[in-house]
């Protein structure tokens, strides 16, 4: 009689036997390959697919070691962000991305954020290209090149510096990372802003994100549905993600300014108070008389 994966998990949690761990790794290995395949790294990338899958397996093994079935979370849901994160962390450590590429990504994000603030809607390709002083073809090529950097929902918000502690779009969708009431309120606000930003996207970009992140289709499958090339799907996906990042950057910038304004007013009031002589109270004036 074949042992079910649930039985293997039960035995492994009770005994931590190495052979059971190996069975779990073998059982979930296709998940690592699937997650890596959906990162959207184009065939022109300098990275070898098998190396990426190897990085994904590191994340998978880490997930197996840390998973607790009693929490009621499906293993696939628990492991997927860790597999993605392991791949992205390894790529960052390679430091293969040139500074010029990072500069271009910052330029695109800042341009889209500025245009959205001015237009009160996501900018079109034509508007973004004109603002950056490049042609439509050059702008699209920039988007395609950016997809090779594994810029996705996992990239930190507000900067391309890839800080370890920065919030990412995918962080907003993982309830297990929320630890307390304050974090829950902040997360709810950010998720609301993200949902509103998605609703403002053109219908084609909304459809693409739904097919990719919700239906979990591959780039090739989406290209067939939308009747465009696979490279064009990469471009559109990057533009959609950059629009979302720009919206979140605008929101976070506004929040930072809002927090600073009351503080500045309070400090100004304190300075004015120190600069004026204290007025005597009515009681003090009577006692003096």
UniProtKB/TrEMBL annotation:
It comes from Thermosporothrix sp. COM3. Residues 24-96, 106-184, 197-246 form the RNA polymerase sigma-70 region domain. The keyword ATP-binding does not apply. This is RNA polymerase sigma factor WhiG. GO terms for molecular function: DNA binding; DNA-directed RNA polymerase activity; sigma factor activity. Residues 271-280 have a biased composition (Basic residues). InterPro entries: RNA_pol_sigma-70_dom, RNA_pol_sigma70, RNA_pol_sigma70_r2, RNA_pol_sigma70_r3, RNA_pol_sigma70_r4, RNA_pol_sigma_FliA_WhiG, RNA_pol_sigma_r2, RNA_pol_sigma_r3/r4-like. Residues 252-289 are annotated as: Disordered. One of its GO terms (biological process) is DNA-templated transcription initiation. Keywords: DNA-binding, Sigma factor, Transcription, Transcription regulation.
């Amino acid at each position: 009689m074949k042992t079910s994966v649930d039985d293997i998990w039960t035995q492994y949690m009770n005994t931590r036997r190495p052979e059971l761990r190996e069975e779990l790794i073998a059982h979930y290995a296709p998940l690592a390959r699937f997650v890596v395949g959906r990162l959207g790294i184009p065939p022109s990338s300098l990275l070898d697919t098998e190396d990426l899958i190897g990085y994904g397996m590191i994340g998978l093994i880490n997930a197996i070691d840390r998973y607790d079935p009693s929490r009621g979370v499906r293993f696939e849901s628990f492991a997927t962000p860790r597999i993605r994160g392991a791949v992205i962390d390894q790529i960052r450590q390679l430091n293969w991305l040139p500074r010029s590429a990072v500069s271009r990504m910052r330029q695109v994000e800042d341009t889209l954020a500025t245009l959205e603030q001015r237009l009160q809607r996501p900018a079109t390709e034509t508007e973004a290209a004109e603002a950056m002083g490049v042609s439509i073809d050059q702008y699209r090529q920039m988007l395609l090149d950016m997809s090779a950097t594994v810029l996705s929902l996992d990239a930190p918000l507000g900067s391309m510096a890839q800080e370890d502690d920065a919030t990412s779009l995918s962080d907003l969708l993982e309830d297990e990372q929320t630890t307390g009431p304050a974090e829950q309120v902040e997360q709810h606000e950010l998720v609301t802003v993200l949902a509103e930003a998605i609703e403002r996207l053109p219908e084609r970009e909304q459809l693409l994100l739904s097919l990719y992140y919700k239906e979990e289709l591959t780039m090739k499958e989406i290209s067939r549905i939308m009747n465009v090339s696979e490279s064009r799907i990469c471009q559109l996906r990057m533009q959609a993600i950059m629009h979302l990042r720009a919206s979140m950057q605008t929101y976070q910038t506004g929040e930072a300014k809002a927090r600073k304004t009351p503080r500045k007013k309070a400090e100004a009031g304190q300075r004015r108070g120190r600069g004026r002589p204290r007025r005597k109270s009515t009681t003090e004036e009577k006692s003096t008389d």
